[in-house]
Amino acid sequence: MKIHNKKKYLSFLKFKRDFQEYGLEKARSYELILHWLNNRLSRNQFLVLSGILVGCTAGLAGVVLKTLVHTIHNFITHKVHFEYQILFYIVFPFLGIVLTTSIVLTIFKGQDRKGIGAILYEIAQNSSIVASVKMYSQIIQSAVTVGLGGSAGLESPIAVTGAAIGSNYAQTYRLSYKERTLLLAAGATAGIASAFNAPIAGIMFAFEILLTGVVFTDFIPLVVAAVCGSLLSRILLQEDVLFRFYTRDPFNYKNVPYYLILGIVTGLYARYFVVISQKVEHFIKELKLSRMRKAMFGGLVLSLLCVLFPPLFGEGYETVKAFTNGSTHAIIRNSFFRYFEIGDWTIIIFLVLVCLLKAFATSFTIFSGGNGGNFAPSLFAGGTVGYLFALVCQHIGFTDVPVTNLVLVGMAGAMSGVLYAPLTAIFLIAESSFGYDLFIPLMIASIISYLIAKWFSPISPELKSLAEQGKILTKQHDTNLLFALKTEDFIDKYSETINEHASITELFEQVKNGNKNIFAVTDEAGKLKGILTLDDIRPYLFNKETDSSMTVSQIMKAPPAIIYRENKPLEILQIFDDSGVWNLPVTSENNDFIGFISKSSILMSYRQLLKEYSD
Length: 615
What we know:
It is a multi-pass membrane protein. Its main location: membrane. With about 625 residues, the chain is mostly helical. About 65% of the residues lie in helices and about 5% in strands. The protein has three domains: about 15-235, Clc chloride channel (Orthogonal Bundle); about 255-480, Clc chloride channel, CATH 1.10.3080.10; about 485-615, CBS-domain (Roll), CATH 3.10.580. Helix 9 (about 200-210) packs across helix 10 and helix 18 (about 420-435) packs antiparallel against helix 19. The longest helix has about 35 residues, at about 45-80.
């Protein structure tokens, strides 16, 4: 027994010495153990272990953020008298956006890419490599923004934090692109699962928004991470912090018309929400102000909205819970509407304004400098729309209206239309309300809303924003792989060039001594003037009657197309397909020749990456 243990110890010491050769002398003991396990376990076994570690870490990060924000928010809204709350609604939302912007500028050097689009960007254009700073920067920024009243959600920052944890874990243990992407998604899954205590919704989020084309065996690490994140959330978070709804009505097939109409209403509202968000983003970007002044402007707008309509303060989950608990009057108790006689029409008008202005409050929070996402706002708005729909139905004479169910189904419908994620919305509400018998109405409303959203715009807002930055319009699996390729890697920096005024004799000599079959014709400043291929030169090369006084400019031709350094591999392949050639010149915006790119080199790299992902 002692000999056996001694052999294990010596094996571990040898392993440690081996890793010192790779520059890991300063590696921590647990890192060395995991490196050792990575070499001893099978791929699937190590991925399951990784899913547990990433899931627990990301889940814990989600718990910390939710607890921190809940504590701040609870102090402002429940521990302070009404007269002082008005002052707080004026001060704190403004302060939250300004402080967040200050933190971003001073501590994080202006790096503030946020939301689900940040994860998609890293997967698409950065080989799933997320900066380590995002493992904590999103927590700090969103805690300040939402804790002090920003009208946004914590789920997107939690997802970005989890994605950063998963990516950096994979980088530490030198995992491949496929495993790195998988663990990035596992971290985001655990973050969503911990935020909502909904593991299946977390998994659906990963498959529906982040991942495409994964094989079935890769399903297990996501499940493990989601379970770990959800368990930590359930164990550590207080009941009033959890996203839970305990009151609902049993499903009755006679109520299906309500759900059909609500699906249409939430789909149209989701489109309104997206359009307002895009217009506010464009408006703020066009402002000729510094980032700090934009933050101050956005903070002032948000503070004004929160003073007039307190439900816009923070995430808004307490308001939605009030709908399901029947505490309707508590919704407007702290607003100026309390001075009016509170009747059905007062509540309806108030909630209509809240729904309409929620899109503005969230957009100004996020785009003026705050940090947050659209998860909570879409759920809040959907719940409000569902409750409004129920009130209107009751007011016009319908009886037995399933109010609570309409609130829950409205949440799923709006989230499906805003995020383009119907499966995530369905399972999220089903898990959060223990309403698995509501699957039919949840499916009806979510799918209708999703189809309406797709009818207006084929891709989600996050992907549209990414597409506009990269001038690309897809998120298919093979496109994500192409995104991982870098244009700079395919430029032949040793391409042959020849001056446009060079004689044809000089050209023949260059062909004789070189090994290229295509030449760039440039002027004295290195500007591209044309190209020549061996096929263009051959008729002159073997013709004894060729005039030696001819110059290159007389036989050169214009390139079928030009590639710019800023073009992405997917764009370049499209240019190759349109031009029908296999080699094209690359220039700068000023037409400075940089080199040639071969279509075959891109395709070979893509096939290699595809093989790596499929192994």
